[in-house]
Amino acid sequence: MEFNLAAVHEAVAAANPDRECIVWRDLRLTYAQVTERSRRLANVLSGAGLGVRAERSALAGHQSGQDHVGLYLYNGNEYLEGMLGAFKARTAPFNVNYRYVAEELRYLLADADARAVIYHAAFAPVLEEVRGDLPRLDLLLQVADESGHPLLEGAVDYEAALAYASPDGPDLEWSPDDLYILYTGGTTGMPKGVLWRQHDIFVAAMGGRSFGSAVEFESLEAVVEASRGGGGRSLATPPLMHGAAQWSAFTAFAGGHTVVIQDDTTRLDPADVWRTVARERVMLIQIVGDAFGRPLIEELEQGSYDTSSLFIVVNGGAPLNATLKERFLEQLPNAMLLDAVGSSETGAQMGHTSTRGQARTGEFTPGPGTVVVDEDLASVLAPGHEGVGWLAQQGHVPLGYLGDAEKTARTFPVIDGTRYAVPGDRAVWRADGVIELLGRDSVTINSGGEKIFAEEVEQAIASHPAVYDVVVCGRPSERWGHEVVALVQLKDGESADEADLLEECSRRLARFKLPKAIVFLDHLQRSPAGKADYRWAKQRALDHAAAHP
Predict the structure, then answer these.
(1) Please, how many CA atoms are within 13 Å of residue 161, restricted to the half-sphere of its CB?
(2) Which end of the chain is less packed: N or C, by CB atoms within 10 Å?
(3) Total-model pTM
(4) Could you tell me which residues come within 8 angstroms of residue 540 by beta carbon, excluding any fewer than 6 positions away?
(5) Which value, to the nearest 10 degrees, does the dihedral of the CA atoms of residues 490, 501, 499, 505 take?
């Protein structure tokens, strides 16, 4: 059987109607209530003439036959309702980075050919700047918030729209071919919309396998039966515009669990997160690398919170250094700390469980369909191969990039008759079956003829006790071609100079990998999901070189 995300949620909701589905602040929505609200939204979208224009069988991998709905929102019940309602209308929702300035927003909405946008009122002024350049943008649904911005001209209040819509399910036949669209972060290049069949992303990352198992569900009845034993509570701390947070939420839905959202959704407030964990008896929390892990563990060490319910800490989207892992394990002795590796183009791929005293970063057990392919994308390498290859995924992989046939062909090559996703991560597959993840090729630095992976230098510098955050990039060099530059933010009240950090690095890295320059800054820019913004970092490194010739 193949799955549709709307059908999965409806079936689980029918089996567990009175169980809490979404909890945010004082709002507690049961599965039955979320079903009704998302059906109402689906009818709003359908009533505006949005839906399917062409079925999948008539399209190439980089093409979409559905109308697209932008989700320009902070976390909240509206984000998850927006996804479900769009799926039920057979439209395709897509994530919008709420930090974008007008020019970036204009590019994204035009690239996605957005027909509708659901947005928080706080973003109304930026949306107003660009809507005149988007003649196909027909429907604006504005979610009220604390900003107090009035409705844009022609927009409809979200709650009012739902109140007037029918609570009955739309008369549509959902398909496993219906799209799930996830835009890449754009931290190394322009954002691209990754097109997934809903069946493939469900199995790859959104609950289509039994928990802790590689075994796929064989039927909707099997999903429903497993959900009857649900009732756990999970909290994804990153924004829902980040794929990993969406995957965490929909995996919880498939299992019949409750998705908990922290009170403050406009920023990461560590105290708020831990208060929410204690108040809601959260069992699983998801974080994104050092940028989330460091403030959370510092607050946990300094405060007093009941974390006895917490069973699993999942890290994904960015590396969490081994020192921080040990601190988490010290504070949460009854919890497991799991690293999950995946990308917009692959879904979930690999994992690693850290234990006290043996925390590691960068070594993973591959999941179903995860392999390493050779430099030329001509063959699959065997464990124990010589040299560095490309991390790849076969099986449940995306259709392609929206509107870009050329990039689709490059990223999803066919090797020996099998289609793979190869988004650009460098890796080594050891003889013991473990895959060492080296980092994204687009931020690899070629210095003096040697390839240096930014993430391994970042991890080395992050191990220094005075370092709060670090991003490593390359910049042009007459002597080396490119040279390694580290941008470093120190902890408040701590001090360290370039020599201190180089000494720490030299204990962990070969000499040729050491930074040629270290730039100390008061703050490092990251995406709201905690990912390094390498385009910003490169510009800061160039600015520093110009100011210090």
Answers:
(1) 27
(2) C
(3) 0.89
(4) 487, 519, 521
(5) -170
